[in-house]
Amino acid sequence: MSHGSHPLARHEGDSHHDVVPDHFENPGHPPHVLRWADVDPAAARRAERQVAGFFLLSIIGTLAFIVAYFWMDQDAVGTVPGIGAQNLYHLVLGVTMALSLLGIGLGVVHWSKTLMDDHEVTEERHVLASDAETRRGFGDTIAEGLESSQIMRRPLIKYTLGGALGLFALPLGIQLVGSMGPLPRNDLEETFWDKGMRLVTDPDGIPIKAADVSKGSVFHVLPEGINEAEHPLDEKAKASVLLMRLNPDDIQSDKQREWGYEGIVAYSKICTHVGCPVALYEQQTHHLLCPCHQSTFDVTQDCKVIFGPAKRPLPQLKISVDEEGYLTADQGFTEPVGPSYWEREL
Ligand code: FES
């Protein structure tokens, strides 16, 4: 076959660098380089000990995970440098599980790189499908196996085996679902808020007077009495509230005006999409923005969703003031806070 007219073929006057050969020689494998462990028995023993050390690390991680899972206080809270207050139970489970997996991974990789045979092997490509005779032979083997096991002639065994294998995974599934904690309906319906509780700043815990809330400001608020030492973190997260003061004339909903105090309104801080904290308040537009997927809530319209994937307004907390002028909750939330879920309408 002639390649004279190929656009990439050599032409008179072409520079040397523009020439593309018709085909490339197979350069083969580069020369094999022996590793330290291939030539030095002491290095091989050292590598062996290192691999065993990684596996030992995994064993320690797994045992520590089991001990923590069954014996650690699930509500233990502690301060981790650089992160802040954390649920120690989850932290320890995560770290020990990571060690357990990491030890195996590192051990296997190190083993394969230092001790396992690393000679290059070349296998020519061939047709992947087996030939007709081999496939026929495979079918015959299966048929013979079925025949000799008598499974087709004994439906009782066939169906009970099917049931046993089908149900085999059920305990694993039950355990998996059972370990996922309470259903969201039970968990998100109740928050720490109750009638008469003062609104305090998060994290300082200072009660807030209505007179201190200026227009355009936003406060991150918790119920008085909640604290990290006595209450689990999720309790605090569920009770988080944003407090803002609007011009009362800007408020477009009667219920919202009634549930607030002289233009001060309080809304759950947990996004109704999948529960991120809604933390960005745009005081010119009165929009609250969730940084996770950009759901935007209009505070002048009872925090209804005007953009993004959230489907429900943020729940409002009804507030008033006590005789000393401090803002208080008139009642707890009247609807579950946080993400929507399948049972919410039930
Ligand atoms: S969690 Fe807020 S938009 Fe997704």
UniProtKB/TrEMBL annotation:
Family, similarity comment: Belongs to the Rieske iron-sulfur protein family.
Phylogenetic placement of the source organism: Bacteria, Bacillati, Actinomycetota, Actinomycetes, Micrococcales
PROSITE patterns referenced in this protein's UniProt entry, alphabetically: RIESKE
Organism of origin: Kytococcus schroeteri
Coiled-coil regions listed: none
Location of region: Disordered: 1-24
CDD domains from the UniProt entry: Rieske
Name of the protein: Cytochrome bc1 complex Rieske iron-sulfur subunit
Membrane topology: Multi-pass membrane protein
